[in-house]
Fold Small secreted protein.
Amino acid sequence: MKRLIALFLVTASLAALSACNTMAGAGEDVSAGGHALTNSAEKAK
């Protein structure tokens, strides 16, 4: 039983870390898109 709980905790930890990396990547993509829009708006003035 202890082995099953340990396996579950390791799996849950890996899933949480994976999700954090995904959200960080998505945040960087959104940020890059915002910078591109800002630059385009500045050039269009």
User: Anything to note?
Assistant: DSSP finds one helix and no strands in the chain. Residues 34 and 40 are 10 Å apart (CA to CA). The radius of gyration is 20 Å.
